[in-house]
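[Discussion] Sanity-checking designs against the backbone

I'm trying to build intuition for which residues belong where. Below is a structure token string of 413 positions. I'd appreciate it if someone posts a full sequence so I can compare it with mine line by line.
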């Protein structure tokens, strides 16, 4: 049975505060690990990131900080001060994992790197998260979330059909979050290996490499065939000659809907044909004949699109039927109707609409977290995934500067 504290209850993580590895610590903390966040005196600079609660700039009111540091304990240590160095060493001696987001070489210069602290602590897992890797020739280059996304490749796949326009950066610190997900995966894989071998290891995470292997088919296409993918509006980038149809549809009430992946099974083509009949729209959509052909096929082989002319028309009719039906219905009716028939579609939402949507709410995504400092609950984004046996939960709000100093360190330490 999973402990009440979460799937990772019993693991202690020491996290050195950073912008780019903060989400890795959050993932581990919200899954039940005890994550002790180490900040420099005065607090980490990301406490100054806006927006702030009630538009009042304050290191304790940054929404960025609140989001990325839920469920963590917070302490302050000056790693260039002798007494605090001793405290840090003792803290690491109690840890299963160190999550290190410091610049390459800094911890080594302080005598506080993995090689310095693993003596007598063979089971320690050290996860280093840097822009290009600890020993890469580019390790000293400055970086931001934008440069990681651009240099790593994801930005090349994001934008519009009109390639006279520049690529578009994904928002929300996606470069940092991609790297953090790989860091969390690496940390837990190393813990599993430790359970077998009894020994920890150094996990060297390159944010650039993490972005590069998270480009879907773009990196693969370039390495295997030398082809570049083309950016496509609101849909997957594709190699030249494999451009997909439009996916965005304007509904009868003026909302934009993403019609998602096209119908790709006989059952889905049958459901789409029946939907047209129920709406009494068959006569307005002559391509229904191709939907019926799709419903009668044993399989829909997407690799044959462009080769098999009949199959090509069937798949095209499926996409056009989704766009046509959307134009005749309100956004809500189209969304609910598509979902009931197992057809992928969804509205283009503003962030506040997502948090208010009844389906998202029913899933439990909006999560109320009590803030004793404000004497009220604050709604946070909840679990990015849901697992029935190993639940995710936000145990507490983000720590205030040095809030848990006396809890983590005894008077003698």
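Best answer:
Here's mine. Compare freely.
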């Amino acid at each position: 049975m999973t402990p009440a504290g979460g799937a990772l209850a019993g693991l202690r993580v020491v996290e050195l505060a950073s912008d780019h590895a903060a989400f890795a610590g959050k993932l581990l903390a919200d899954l039940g690990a005890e994550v002790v966040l180490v900040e420099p005196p005065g607090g980490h600079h990301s406490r100054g990131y806006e927006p702030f609660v009630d538009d009042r700039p304050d290191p304790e009111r940054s929404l960025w900080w609140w989001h990325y540091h839920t469920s963590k304990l917070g302490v302050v240590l000056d790693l260039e001060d002798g007494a605090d160095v001793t405290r840090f060493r003792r803290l690491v001696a109690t840890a299963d994992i160190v999550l290190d987001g410091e610049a390459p070489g800094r911890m080594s210069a302080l005598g506080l790197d993995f090689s310095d602290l693993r003596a007598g602590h063979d089971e320690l897992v050290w996860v280093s998260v840097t822009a290009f890797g600890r020993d890469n020739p580019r390790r000293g280059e400055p970086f931001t979330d934008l440069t990681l996304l651009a240099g790593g490749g994801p930005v090349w796949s994001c934008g519009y059909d009109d390639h006279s326009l520049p690529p578009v950066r994904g928002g929300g610190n996606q470069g940092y979050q991609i790297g953090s997900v790989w860091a969390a995966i690496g940390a837990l894989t190393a813990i599993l290996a430790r359970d077998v071998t009894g020994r920890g290891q150094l996990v060297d995470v390159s944010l650039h490499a993490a972005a590069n292997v998270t480009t879907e088919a773009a990196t693969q296409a370039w390495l295997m065939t030398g082809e570049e993918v083309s950016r496509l509006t609101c849909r997957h980038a594709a190699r030249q000659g494999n451009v997909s149809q439009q996916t965005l549809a304007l509904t009868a009430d003026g909302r934009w809907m993403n019609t998602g992946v096209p119908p790709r099974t006989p059952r889905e083509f049958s459901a789409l044909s029946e939907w047209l009949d129920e709406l009494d729209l068959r006569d307005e959509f002559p391509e229904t004949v191709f939907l019926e052909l799709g419903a009668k096929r044993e399989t829909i082989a997407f690799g044959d699109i462009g080769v098999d002319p009949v199959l090509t028309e069937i798949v095209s009719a499926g996409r056009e039927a989704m766009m046509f039906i959307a134009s005749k219905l309100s956004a809500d009716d189209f969304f609910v109707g598509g979902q009931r028939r197992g057809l992928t579609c969804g509205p283009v939402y503003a962030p506040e609409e997502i948090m208010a949507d009844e389906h998202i709410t029913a899933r439990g995504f909006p999560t109320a977290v009590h803030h004793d400092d404000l004497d009220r609950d604050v709604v946070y984004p909840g679990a990015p995934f849901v697992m029935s046996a190993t639940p995710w939960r936000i145990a507490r709000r983000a720590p205030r500067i040095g809030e848990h100093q006396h809890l983590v360190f005894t008077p003698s330490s």
